[in-house]
Amino acid sequence: MWHYILKRLLLMIPTLVGILAITFAIIQFVPGGPVEQMVQQLTHAGVAGEAAQGGGNSPFKGRAGLSPEELATLKAQYGFDKPALQRFGDMLVKFSRFDLGESFFHHESVWALIVSKLPVSMSIGLWSFFITYLVCIPLGVSKAVRDGSPFDLFTSTVILVGYAIPGFVLGVALLVLFGGGSFWQLFPLRGLVSENWADLGLVDKVLDYLWHITLPVTASVVGNLAVMTILTKNVFLEEIRRQYVYTARAKGLSERRILYKHVFRNALIPLITGFPAAFIGAFFSGSLLIETLFSLDGLGLLSYESVIRRDYPVVMGSLYVFTLMGLVAKLLSDLSYVLVDPRVSFEEGGQ
């Protein structure tokens, strides 16, 4: 077991470096980098200054552009005065110390930015995660037990319709219906909490938070219900049709005992093994469309703005953190097989 864990941890290093290298290489060929954007801003500012002074003596000649010395200073400010390989090596050394650098445009550390946006994404991700598991597993079991019944057909139709509706479209519909668009104003339009949240009592704070999070979580979770419910149903159907179930029935065991003592334990194995990855992923899930629609300043919006503004420290730093957490989650998922299924072993010759 420990040999397998050590091997997987060592394999994470080239995987992580490879992902960062590919992204870093692509970035080098993307036009409109931070230096180009700053040159454009300074040029526009210089032209505006000349126009305001009627073409008189201006300290900066906007139409003439930046001098080579000014351009070199600007490249040094953003770290582009070094060769690409050297910059990549310096970045890896910093990342090994978990130093993600400083944002070009926010002028604060990337860690501080991620931590500041994390509560919003965690709120959406964790609630979506728990609601999905709490709804889909009981519903999937009920559908498997009542396979082919009117209940099974009705619930399948409902969850498939929900799966077919994009989360952004559903969010718009929820805002129109319940956000004061054209019908009822039952929920707020934006934000995670009210402006006077700090002045509220404990119970009122909790209620205010749940009041704000209802619509975005609903828009996020509906699309996830179909996949997990159908997966749960199929896994339980497969177990119900196994030979040991027929044997248990022949021995006179009740259907309830067979389902919850034998089938339930075996059928949950493939569901539980995906639990660690889904749980860790919930901390960093960020939906740009949902966050934009409900005016939530989370990781999804941060990632999008960083790509658009070519804020490379934020792009690479967030990619590093998310990739590392994804690799760790995958390892935990594999290890969970051993914990829930004694037949699985990672020892030599044990698989």
- The CATH topology of the largest domain: MetI-like fold
So what's the overall shape?
Answer: globular
Radius of gyration: 27 Å
Domains (count)? 2
CATH superfamily of the largest domain: MetI-like
Organism: Pseudogulbenkiania subflava DSM 22618
Subcellular location: Cell membrane
GO biological process, one term: microcin transport
Family: Belongs to the binding-protein-dependent transport system permease family.
List keywords for this structure.
72% helix, 351 residues, single chain, MetI-like fold, mainly alpha
Describe the 3D structure.
Keywords: Cell membrane, Membrane, Transmembrane, Transmembrane helix, Transport. The protein has 351 residues and is mainly alpha-helical. It has 2 domains: 32-81; 116-340, MetI-like fold (Orthogonal Bundle). Helices cover 72% and strands 0% of the residues. The radius of gyration is 27 Å and the shape is globular. Residues 55-64 have low confidence and may be disordered.
Question: How do the strands and helices of this protein lay out in sequence?
Answer:
Elements: H1 2-28, H2 34-52, H3 68-78, H4 84-96, H5 110-145, H6 150-164, H7 167-178, H8 202-240, H9 243-250, H10 255-267, H11 269-272, H12 275-283, H13 288-293, H14 299-308, H15 312-340
Helix pairs in contact: 1-15, 2-3, 5-8, 5-12, 5-15, 6-8, 7-8, 8-10, 12-15, 14-15
Organism: Pseudogulbenkiania subflava DSM 22618
Membrane topology: Multi-pass membrane protein
InterPro entries: MetI-like, MetI-like_sf
